[in-house]
Inverse folding.
C-alpha cells in the first residue's frame, strides 16, 4: 500500500508557513498537528472552519494523522450545516473564532503552540485514505458530497506545481486571497505548499492594501493566489503592489486584457487554473498567451449526452463539467460558456434549481424563480453580477423572504432585486422565458 | 498655520459628516445596484447582514468607491475596521476624518 508523507519539506527547520512575515518551521507544524490530533474527539468527521490558514492546515494534517475526514461545505449557513449533520452525525467543528455560529459540537484550536520534539519524522498516509469530502449544490436542494482520497489530491497538486513552474528547486512563499476551505484555495495554497516543499501565508488578505502588506515582507520568490474579483479590485484601487514571481487565478475565466494588466502590476506571469469542486484542478493556461487550456496529462475530456465529462488521472470518477467546452487535439480545449442551470457569483457556485428549492421551501412562498442578469459581464468594479428572483408570496415582504433565505444560501446568491409578483409567467414547459421576465423587471 | 491651529478641529464637523453620508448613500446604492433609494438607508443600521444586507464582495466594492472618491485605502488589520462597517453613520465619520481628497 502506497503511503505519501503529509509534507515534502526535507528537514525540521524548513519553512512551511509565514505569519505576519515570520517563518514557522516544518518541525513546529508537525508538533502542532500531532498535538492537535491527540486532542480531537472521537467523531470521524471534522468540519474545519479555522479562518487562519496555518491553523486550517494543522487541523487538516491532524485529521490525516488521526484518520479523520475533513468536511468542506461551500458555506456554513444553518441549512447547509443541517445537511452536514445528516451526512455525518459524528461531525464536530474545529474553529479559531470564539464568535463562531455553527451548530455542531465545537473544538477550539489550541491557544498555545506545541513544543517540537527532538526527532524528525514525517507521518505518511495511505494513498487510499478518504481525507476530505467537499460539497456542491445539487439540483434537488440537498448538497452533494464528493469524496477525495489522499493519493489523488496529492497527484493533482504535483501536476499543478509542474504547470506553474514551482518545481525549479526554489522555495516559494504563497499568499492567497481565497479561503483554504474552498477547493481552489485548499489545493493551491495549503496542499501546493505542503506537497511542493513551499511555504504558505497564514493570512488571507482582503483589501488591496492588505495584499501589499502581506506580500511585501516575504523573501522572493513569492506567489499570489487569487480570483478575478480580487485581481480586478487590485487593478481598480490604483495603489502600487510589491513585485511577485507568479500570479495564479481561478474560480472564473479572466479576460486576457485584465490578465495583461495584472502581469504588469506584479511584473510576473499570470497562470489560470481550471477546475471544479468535483474534479479538483484539471487544466491551466497562460492567459496572455492563449485562450486554450491545457489539460493535466492523464485527464481526458469526452462529450456524452450533450455534456462534457472529465475522467482519468486524479479525477475520482467521470464527472460532468459545468461549462460548455470545445475540445481540441493534444489535450487542449476552449470554454464556450456555462451550462444553463449553473451559476458562478464571485467564484461561488450553485445551480438555479438548488436556489429555487431554497426559496420555495420558505413558508408562505407559493412559487419562485431565480434568474441570471441580462448582461452578466460585470458592471461593477470587481465584475460581479448578482442574480435576481421573482417570487409569489402573498402576505410576505421582500425583506422577510431575504431574512429567511439568508439562513439557507450563501449571501452572494441573495437576489438583487427580489421582485414580488402575483404570478410567474411560465411557459408550457414550466420555464421562465426571458421576454416574460423583462415584462416583470422594472427598467430592464 | 500656527495662528489658524486653534480654529482647526481634529474631528470633522457634523455638517461635513452629513454631506459625506448623503454622498456615500448615493455612491453605494449605485455601485452595488441595490434595490433601495439612498434616502431610505437607515444610517444607524448595520451595513452587513440583516441591516442593509451587504456581503464581503460588496465590502470590497465599497472599499474601491472610497479609495477612488476619497483617497482612503481600507485595511483589515486596523482596529477600526469592524466599526467602520457597523453603520452608514460610522462609515461616514471614518471617511470624513480620513479623506485625502
Amino acid at each position: 500500500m502506497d503511503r505519501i508523507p503529509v509534507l515534502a519539506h526535507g528537514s525540521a527547520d524548513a519553512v512551511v508557513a509565514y505569519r505576519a512575515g515570520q517563518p514557522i518551521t516544518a518541525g513546529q507544524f508537525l508538533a502542532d498537528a500531532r498535538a492537535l490530533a491527540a486532542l480531537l474527539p472521537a467523531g470521524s468527521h471534522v468540519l474545519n472552519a479555522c479562518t487562519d490558514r496555518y491553523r486550517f492546515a494543522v487541523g487538516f494534517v491532524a485529521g490525516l494523522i488521526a484518520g479523520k475526514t475533513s468536511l468542506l461545505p461551500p458555506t456554513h449557513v444553518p441549512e447547509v450545516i443541517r445537511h452536514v449533520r445528516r451526512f455525518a452525525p459524528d461531525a464536530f467543528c474545529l474553529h479559531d473564532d470564539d464568535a463562531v455560529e455553527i451548530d455542531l459540537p465545537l473544538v477550539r484550536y489550541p491557544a498555545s503552540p506545541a513544543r517540537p520534539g527532538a526527532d524528525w519524522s514525517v507521518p505518511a498516509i495511505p494513498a487510499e485514505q478518504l481525507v476530505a469530502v467537499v460539497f456542491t449544490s445539487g439540483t434537488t436542494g440537498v448538497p452533494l458530497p464528493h469524496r477525495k482520497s489522499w493519493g489523488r489530491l496529492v497527484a493533482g497538486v504535483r501536476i499543478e506545481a509542474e504547470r506553474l513552474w514551482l518545481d525549479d528547486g526554489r522555495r516559494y512563499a504563497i499568499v492567497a486571497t481565497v479561503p483554504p476551505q474552498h477547493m481552489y484555495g485548499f489545493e493551491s495554497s495549503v496542499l501546493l505548499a505542503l506537497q511542493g516543499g513551499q511555504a504558505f501565508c497564514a493570512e488571507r488578505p482582503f483589501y488591496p492594501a492588505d495584499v501589499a502588506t502581506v506580500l511585501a515582507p516575504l523573501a522572493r520568490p513569492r506567489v499570489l493566489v487569487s480570483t478575478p474579483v480580487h485581481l480586478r479590485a487590485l487593478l481598480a484601487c490604483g495603489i502600487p503592489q510589491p513585485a511577485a514571481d507568479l500570479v495564479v487565478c481561478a474560480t472564473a475565466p479572466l479576460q486576457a486584457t485584465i490578465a495583461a494588466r495584472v502581469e504588469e502590476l506584479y511584473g510576473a506571469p499570470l497562470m489560470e487554473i481550471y477546475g471544479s469542486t468535483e474534479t479538483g484542478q484539471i487544466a491551466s493556461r497562460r492567459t496572455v498567451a492563449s485562450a486554450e487550456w491545457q489539460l493535466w496529462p492523464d485527464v481526458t475530456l469526452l462529450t456524452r449526452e450533450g455534456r462534457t465529462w472529465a475522467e482519468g488521472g486524479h479525477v475520482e470518477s467521470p464527472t460532468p463539467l459545468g461549462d460548455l467546452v470545445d475540445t481540441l487535439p493534444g489535450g487542449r480545449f476552449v470554454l464556450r460558456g456555462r451550462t444553463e442551470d449553473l451559476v458562478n457569483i464571485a467564484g461561488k457556485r450553485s445551480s438555479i434549481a438548488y436556489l429555487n428549492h431554497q426559496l420555495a421551501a420558505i413558508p408562505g412562498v407559493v412559487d419562485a424563480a431565480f434568474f441570471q442578469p441580462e448582461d452578466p459581464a460585470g458592471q461593477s468594479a470587481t465584475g460581479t453580477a448578482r442574480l435576481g428572483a421573482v417570487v409569489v408570496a402573498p402576505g410576505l415582504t421582500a425583506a422577510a423572504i431575504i431574512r429567511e433565505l439568508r439562513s439557507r444560501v450563501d449571501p452572494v446568491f441573495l437576489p438583487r432585486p427580489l421582485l414580488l409578483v402575483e404570478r410567474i409567467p411560465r411557459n408550457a414547459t414550466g420555464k421562465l422565458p426571458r421576454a416574460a421576465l423583462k415584462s416583470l423587471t422594472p427598467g430592464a | 498655520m500656527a495662528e489658524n491651529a486653534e480654529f482647526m478641529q481634529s474631528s470633522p464637523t457634523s455638517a461635513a459628516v452629513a454631506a459625506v453620508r448623503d454622498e456615500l448613500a448615493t455612491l453605494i446604492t449605485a455601485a452595488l445596484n441595490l434595490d433601495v433609494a439612498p434616502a431610505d438607508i437607515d444610517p444607524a443600521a448595520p451595513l452587513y447582514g440583516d441591516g442593509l444586507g451587504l456581503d464581503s464582495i460588496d465590502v470590497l466594492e465599497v472599499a474601491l468607491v472610497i479609495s477612488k472618491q476619497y483617497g482612503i485605502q481600507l485595511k483589515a488589520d486596523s482596529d477600526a475596521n469592524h466599526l467602520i462597517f457597523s453603520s452608514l453613520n460610522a462609515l461616514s465619520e471614518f471617511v470624513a476624518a480620513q479623506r485625502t481628497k
About this structure: Residues 21 and 92 of chain B are 5 Å apart (CA to CA).
